[in-house]
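Hi R.,

Here are the chain sequences for the assembly we discussed:
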Amino acid sequence: MRLYNYFRSGTSFRVRIALNLKGLSYDYVPVHLAQGEHRQDAYRAISPDTLVPVLDVQGQPDEALLSQSMAIIEYLDETHPTPPLLPADPLGRARVRALAQTIACEVHPVNNLRILQYLGGPLGLTEAQRADWYNHWVREGLRAYERRLQDLQALRAASDLPPSVYSYGDTPTLADCCLVPQVVNGQRFGLVYEDLPLTLRAYEACMRLDAFERAHPRHCPDAQP
Amino acid sequence: MRLYNYFRSGTSFRVRIALNLKGLSYDYVPVHLAQGEHRQDAYRAISPDTLVPVLDVQGQPDEALLSQSMAIIEYLDETHPTPPLLPADPLGRARVRALAQTIACEVHPVNNLRILQYLGGPLGLTEAQRADWYNHWVREGLRAYERRLQDLQALRAASDLPPSVYSYGDTPTLADCCLVPQVVNGQRFGLVYEDLPLTLRAYEACMRLDAFERAHPRHCPDAQP
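And here is the predicted structure of the full complex:
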């Protein structure tokens, strides 16, 4: 497999984690977003929406270029079921997907590079206004994530289960694949997480796993300071 | 089942479509977003992130409040498999999910009510600037959707298959549940779709189905002109 991605892209980071958790090796193909490499013709031929990541699953039963990080991770989970990244029961799956989508549909889309560039370019916002924008939506989203974790822990406590190690239960899931890159991105922007104890605990548990650590932007071949 | 939702919310509209496609009846509980009803304590107890929709699946095998529209639709598809809203094969599922996420992760999040309110409030943008913002991201996203449909049609043509009736194949999927509300929302903002023929064809095929028409905001009990 071949992963077209960028070290600092949160959605790329999600897929790197999932590939590592599944024990799947892949070729790392860097696409330099900050230099606009994704908008050049060579990459357009690979990614019609000019976004990263794209997973080329050549050599697998399917020959295809897959896009959208959550769709890619669900595909990996269906085609390589061990270890599972979603619970076996529909309700558990709905809860893990809702956690993942809290990040992927509420937080990340309003704070990615192209949005920040549009705020600074066509809208002419100052650096401080862009920082306020970023902090507002990331904090709003991560607080919602924390409340979800609180509700889930209360359900576990009611069934005499110990607290979750990760976002949902004792193994990392799709939710953690989305959470960790968002937390790491927030760290880069100086976000403080002191009022998000369950979220931070899940993040820290993940980062003790080699699959998450190896996927971190700092270990990517295209990493820059 | 009970659906907490708002007539004009695109994510609510998605779930109404899926419930109708599955032939599932539900109680419609309106939550007046424009009046801030979602931020009041009564609704906070139901939805920790104060978002619509929430599906209360009381009376089903699970007793739970489900949130995040795509997670809800996948849950409905797993617990009520007929008619399916995702293809049976992993590659087809990945493609339908990628289409859905093109809307749900790239377009909708940057154009929903709370974002437009923040642009007008704290950032003090003019009406015209907000309209430009809206049009820019919706057009960008729908063009990406159109390119995906072009690629999928080319694959079908290469296998001597006729063009898709809906976004993916001959039955409506999760992708259509996401597409149709976005198109309807764009119509309200005066968006022109003339350069999106495949997207518009899929939209029109959907709107000929009673399940989509009945879910339209204009038929909701809380609809306003």
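DSSP finds nine helices and four strands in chain A. The CA atoms of residues 64 and 219 of chain A lie 27 Å apart.

Let me know if anything looks off.

Best,
T.
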